[in-house]
Design goal:
Layout: H1 8-60, H2 73-79, E1 87-91, E2 96-100, E3 134-136, E4 146-152, E5 158-164, H3 168-222, H4 238-297, H5 301-331, E6 341-343, H6 345-355, H7 357-362, E7 366-371, E8 378-380, H8 382-399, E9 405-413, E10 416-423, H9 430-434, H10 459-469, E11 473-478, E12 484-491
Parallel strand pairs: 7-9
Antiparallel strand pairs: 1-2, 1-5, 3-4, 4-5, 6-8, 9-10, 10-12, 11-12
């Protein structure tokens, strides 16, 4: 079984290390700042002990009438247990009157004193040496420092000096309890720091991981259903921002899925419609070619030519449909295909009317134009706009009643030019208008379907793609029995 490494085991060690670093800094700072105070207290304690030993020597030696030397054996034995460092008795002239070495094994925790080397401080040659007890912990005069106290006889006259040097072992013994207590404090503080760091790490991990884990569960549930509930977001911290980002991502993914589903449905419908519209003319072409071959075998040349002409018209229809499909696929979402140039709306309207004048005349329909004088020049693809307006105008002519008028207008709006093509035909229902620009829409009153005319059913879809490629829109305004108006809005700035 594979054990997952949770966030706790990433956060906790970092917190423990941080706490230990804080403990080390605190301990080091304490040692640094407390060192001087500890040495001061140790100096005072050593001074008191040296002074007490000097008084004991004066008391037990009967006033030291014979000078600093001449201590009895019992006193020398007792003095060997007073300090773990040598005690030297000096006469007034500085000579050694009585060296007393620390007793072997007399001090627990300290090895026996083996070094018999001693140094006489220059301090003892001064008169100030007999004024008071002196403790010097530095190495300036004697390596390891020294402590001295004057010795007096019964008449309170100085007769020598009690010298303890060096003070290394005595200072260690004096500070041993303090150091032990400090070490124990550091150990306790370290243990508490580790426990606090672990506890704090657990709480911090729970505080951080709980919303993240909730988000993870929400995202996991979205994997199968992007319409599921979104992540609950509260507050304004980074976790809340993450939750908002996840929700935004989920909304975009859901929208993309809906778009893909709609596109897939449209693709299926397109394939079905294309297959239907291609199968019918192809079957007709085959039948007409077979008839032409049969007529030719029978010697009916005129019937064979008529059959081949019909097949040729069917092939032309198929070619137009394929061309429209390619044109639509290229136009959708790719404005870079446009060949933009200055286009005069008045000339555009005049040209499209001229192209459809004969068609309108055949159907008994009049065409009226109205181009405002303030319409600006467009920077657009003139050929494609001509095709767009031509599609709208031909649809209007086909659906206009005989002896009626179809109007085409060009007016100016805010930063845009609006072309309107109107007819007085039967109009369209709201359902038809909703699907008017869909490929191959086969509504009962759809303008993409005109019985008796071989059309591809892609004209309005191509018209909308041309409008959108120019950054414009194509809208319909119609109602049953009230005619139809198509509005093309194009921005004046590309």
């Amino acid at each position: 079984m594979r054990v997952r490494r949770t966030l706790f085991w990433k956060v906790a060690p970092a917190l423990v290390a941080l706490q230990l670093l804080i403990v080390a800094i605190a301990a080091g700072s304490t040692i640094w700042f407390a060192r001087s105070a500890q040495e001061t207290l140790a100096s005072a304690a050593l001074a008191a002990r040296v002074d007490a030993v000097a008084e004991e020597i004066e008391r037990r030696s009967g006033g030291l009438e014979s000078g600093a030397s001449g201590l009895d054996e019992a006193l020398r034995l007792d003095l060997a247990y007073r300090f773990p460092d040598p005690i030297i008795l000096l006469d007034l002239d500085g000579t050694v009157a009585e060296p007393i070495w620390p007793a072997e094994g007399g001090f627990e925790g300290l090895p026996a004193f083996l070094d018999s080397t001693w140094y006489q401080p220059s301090w003892v040659q001064l008169e100030e040496a007999y004024d008071d007890v002196v403790v010097d912990l530095s190495d300036e005069d004697v390596p390891g420092g020294f402590a001295s106290a004057p010795l007096y006889d019964a008449a309170a006259l100085p007769i020598g000096i009690l010298l303890v040097q060096p003070l290394t072992r005595s200072l260690d013994l004096e500070l041993s309890e303090t150091r032990t207590a400090f070490r124990q404090s550091v150990e306790v503080v370290t243990a508490l720091a580790i426990l606090l760091a672990l506890a704090f790490g657990a709480l911090l991990t729970w505080w951080l991981v709980r919303p993240i884990r909730t988000m993870a569960l929400s995202v996991s549930s979205m994997g199968g259903d992007w319409q599921a509930d979104r992540v609950q977001v509260g507050g304004r911290d980074e976790i809340a921002l993450l939750g908002s980002a996840i929700n935004d991502m989920a909304d975009r993914v859901a929208e993309s899925i809906r778009a893909l589903q709609a596109t897939d449905a449209m693709r299926r419908e397109l394939v079905a419609n294309v297959g239907h519209d291609l199968r019918t003319p192809l079957s007709g072409v085959r039948l007409h070619i077979e008839e032409a071959a049969r007529f030719d075998r029978e010697g009916r040349s005129d019937d064979a030519r008529r059959a081949l002409a019909t097949a040729e018209r069917q092939i032309d229809h198929i070619s137009r449909m394929i061309d429209d499909l390619f044109e639509l696929s290229r136009l959708e979402g790719d404005a870079s295909l446009l060949r933009r140039e200055p286009v005069l709306p008045a000339e555009l309207v005049t040209e499209v009317v001229g192209m459809h004048a004969s068609m309108a005349s055949e159907r008994g329909v009049r065409i009226r134009t109205d181009v405002a004088s303030d319409v600006p020049v467009l920077h657009a693809d003139g050929a494609r706009l001509l095709r767009l307006l031509g599609n709208l105008l031909s649809n209007a002519i086909r659906h206009a009643p005989e002896d009626s008028t179809v109007s085409i207008r060009a007016q100016t709006q805010t930063a845009a030019v609006v072309f309107s093509v109107s007819d007085r035909g039967p109009g369209m229902s709201e359902e038809t208008q909703a699907h008017l620009f869909d490929r191959y829409y086969r509504g009962a009153d759809a303008r993409t379907r005109d019985p008796g005319h071989e059309r591809t059913g892609l004209g309005l879809a191509i018209a909308l793609a041309i409008a959108e490629a120019h950054g414009g829109t194509l809208e319909v305004d119609s109602a049953p029995g009230q005619g139809t108006t198509m509005h093309l809005l194009l921005p004046t700035a590309p």
